[in-house]
Amino acid sequence: MPYEAELAHALLTVTRATLLTRRVFTSSTKGTLSKTDTSPVTIGDFGAQALIISSLRHAFPNDAIIAEEESSSLASNPTLTSEILSLVSSTSLSPEEEARLGGSIKDESQLLSLLDMGKSTGGPSGRVWALDPIDGTKGFLRGGQYAVCLALIEDGDVKVGVLGCPNLPLSDTAPLPTSAPDPDDASTGVLFSATLGGGASSRPLTHTSSKPQTDGVKTIHMHSLQPDNIPNATFCESVEAAHSSHSDSSAIAELLHIPLSQSVRMDSQAKYGSIARGAGDIYLRLPVPGKGYVEKIWDHAAGDLIVREAGGVVTDARGQNLDFGRGRRLEGNTGVVAAPQGVHDVVIKAVREVLEGKKDVDR
Ligand SMILES: Nc1ncnc2c1ncn2[C@@H]1O[C@H](COP(=O)(O)O)[C@@H](OP(=O)(O)O)[C@H]1O
Ligand SMILES: [Mg+2]
Ligand SMILES: [Mg+2]
Ligand SMILES: [Mg+2]
Questions:
Q1: CA of 41: how far to CAs of 44, 148, 193, 337, in Å?
Q2: Which terminal residue of the chain has fewer beta carbons within 10 Å of its beta carbon, N or C?
Q3: Which amino acids does the record list as binding Mg(2+) (predicted)?
């Protein structure tokens, strides 16, 4: 299977990092800092990023890396740096698995330099890994959903995608969660993955060295929805109204005769994983008027491939494919609309009607 080695590595390194973030999630102090753009970052984000970059440098030393965080956000904070080092030093993987990932991080200076190895500018050619160590940091802090996200992009196309979603139900048939997860619940925690042309899968996040990662793997599919059934569809969107316009999504739902009670708000790329396994149908991310925000590739690369491999279509709000070959951001796109193949056209038509109807007013 093409990209077998990359997928196996991505699954293991995302597992190790997600288990680290789970330890921070359940701890009372998360070492939260505010970045220059006022968005939050925690010792969980830094720890997961350092561990994943360290393993990628070990296994694929010639590949470029684009990652969200950088050491300057730590603002030379020695207390937090040493907390992160102790966090990355404790592992629940076996010695063999640790060896596959290149082992642990030695000291603070190695930790800081690893954090800064994700500054590639990307572009249309070559191999680049896109890493979001915690997507949905606000959800992570609120006790909601978050995801550890890693994708391999080659010549602008996503070839491998893995999402670690520790707070989603393990069961593919469980409904979209609407309340805060119970981190002690053994039926919580799932990994989603896909390779281009190889389909999409889910598997339990619960990891012990005696339980290989091939245990419990299931192929996942989106619901096969047809236009007549759209009023029965569930849609999901960001919890944060600043990240996706809630008023536009309500107008679109109304146009499609989808009751608002069928909308679920959740943080992170857990939305992509959820619709890919049929625990929801449509993901809307609608540009907030007047902001001119350009989406980051690490917020979408893994989820885009997982949904497409599960039988869905992912485009921006104008119906264009997401273009991951334009650098660190999705410079050619605005918003995201993901839906099953049978209804994506109809959803885009409604999205365009609502967004273009207000074009002269506020965008
Ligand atoms: N104004 C904005 N519009 C859209 N997305 C935004 C945004 N400001 C921040 N984001 C992104 O939204 C991501 C979270 O998405 P969601 O709202 O679906 O959970 C954040 O990822 P991080 O949490 O990794 O920083 C961040 O990159
Ligand atoms: Mg962030
Ligand atoms: Mg993110
Ligand atoms: Mg993040």
A1: 8, 14, 25, 27
A2: N
A3: 68, 132, 134-135, 299
